[in-house]
Amino acid sequence: MPDVQPLVSDFVLKLKRRKVEGSHAVARQTAELLRSVVSQHRMVSSANQAAALADAVRAVGEQLIAANPVELAVGNIVRRVLHIIKEEDISSTAVGIEGLSVTVDSDDEYDSEHDDRPALSAAVLAAHARNALRAPSLQTLLEDIPVSPAVSRTASSTGDSDGKSKSAGDKSSTRKLKHDVIAAIGDLIDEIDSCYEPISEQAVELIHQNEVILTLGRSRTVKEFLYAAKEKKRSFRVFVAEGAPRYQGHVLAKELVEKGVQTTVITDSAVFAMISRVNMVIVGAHAIMANGGVIAPVGMNMVALAAQRHAVPFVVVAGSHKVSCLTRRLVYRVA
């Protein structure tokens, strides 16, 4: 794909140099790049359209993941796009086999003479049903993607002799598959952009009147969460640990004060001393692992242990693009 390769190389360079910061920005730009990859991909053979499209996305995804393995949002979006391709292929296959009939021995001459739908054996139709009903697995999408048989191959097995009409149908199904995948990726981008709204809607249920909240560093999700509670006329106080070494807690405290939230900045070492006065801890996360673990900024483990010691509720707010299917332990520091 020579048309898309400059875009891929440019984004890979940005990931390596960490010019794109934050899971939200990384996830959105990854989805936009993969949408361009799908749009510019040219089908060489129409026999396995979804498999060829998935291979192209997988090849680009491997380059992006290798560029910066710390940004787990890249792999999450790549897997989501591969899942979209599989779903659209299964959907098109299911629509294609709705008009197929099973060949059985029947004495009804009217059915055999007037039924103009292509006939399939019971074994073939059962195989289609098994492929359509097979549960998807996000963990194996990056390595391999099982693709259900294409409708065009099914039609050819029934003895279609019109080569021109079959070729036109293949091109039409190829365009439809790409169009559906591009539209679904657009919905994914909209979901990433609006990820803060459904999270903020739960702020009123969790934050009550005159509560004291502790957070660490700066997280846009936490900021929008607290903004939503303030707009619902909740009165609360926030202690913000400064979050060394980047001290992003000072930025969050300034933003909260501008919204009229009573905010106090504390040092990271004062968390254990203040935790007994806190009603709830609300923090953001870099990624949420499949086993329930959380990858978060430096100092979050200290806050979690302090909250556990004093039995303080610990709430992590994060968008769906941060949910990873990985379960292995990643040993690195996220500043």
Draw up the topology in text.
Blueprint: H1 5-17, H2 23-40, H3 49-67, H4 72-96, E1 101-102, H5 109-114, E2 119-120, H6 122-133, H7 151-157, H8 163-193, H9 196-200, H10 203-206, E3 211-216, H11 220-231, E4 236-241, H12 249-258, E5 262-266, H13 271-274, E6 280-283, E7 287-288, E8 294-295, H14 300-309, E9 314-316
Parallel strand pairs: 1-2, 3-4, 3-6, 4-5, 6-9
Antiparallel strand pairs: 7-8
Helix pairs in contact: 1-3, 2-3, 2-4, 2-8, 3-4, 4-6, 4-8, 7-8
Structure description:
It contains 14 helices and 9 strands. The chain has 335 residues and is α/β, with parallel strands linked by helices. Strand 4, helix 12 and strand 5 form a beta-alpha-beta unit. The chain is elongated, with a radius of gyration of 26 Å.
Task: Provide key terms for this protein.
335 residues, alpha/beta, five-stranded parallel β-sheet, elongated
Q: What is the makeup of the main sheet?
A: 5 strands, parallel
Question: What is the H/E order?
Answer: HHHHEHEHHHHHEHEHEHEEEHE
Classification by helices and strands: alpha/beta
CA distance, first residue to last residue: 36 Å
Sequence stretches where pLDDT stays below 50 over 5 or more residues = 101-114, 141-159, 329-335
Question: In which range does the helix fraction lie?
Answer: 40-55%
What is the compact description of this entry?
This protein has 14 helices and nine strands.
